Amino acid sequence: MKVVPPERLHLTLVFVGDVPCERLGAFLALGAAMGAPPDEPLVLDRFECWGGPRVACLSGPPPQGAWARFIERLAQEARALGAKVEHRPFRPHVTLARKVSPEAFDASGLGLPLPLTWPAAGFRLIRSESGPEGLRYLTAGEFS
């Protein structure tokens, strides 16, 4: 099991995949055009272990109202720019560990009181790089 270091914890709103350098400006413009995310925090209320990707995560129910509209708009606009955004409901989650055996995962020792709220004063366009220490996340743009 590989625990995600605290500085790498994040909540993905829309995964856009690889963005060619020549398209980066369009994605940065999209982020700026989106405006601030909704004021209410996202709720994370359960620990889950997803066997397919073998990740342990803190997750929550699909958001309603303003958050649902914000994420759907972001996904639609990203698709219009050529991103291969999956057509499936958004499930807020923070990955805590990778390469997890679902049978061996036990969240009781984490000591996190649930539910947790995830406030979002802004959002970022992040690119990831693989390296010997695992994934490294680099901010390409920050929006609020």
TrEMBL record:
Keywords of this entry: Hydrolase, Ligase
SUPFAM superfamilies, alphabetized: LigT-like
Gene3D superfamilies cross-referenced by the UniProt entry: Cyclic phosphodiesterase
MF terms in GO: 2',3'-cyclic-nucleotide 3'-phosphodiesterase activity; ligase activity; RNA 2',3'-cyclic 3'-phosphodiesterase activity
Annotated InterPro entries: Cyclic_Pdiesterase, RNA_CPDase
Pfam families, per the entry: 2_5_RNA_ligase2
Keyword Cell wall biogenesis/degradation part of the UniProt annotation: no
Protein's name according to its UniProt entry: 2'-5' RNA ligase
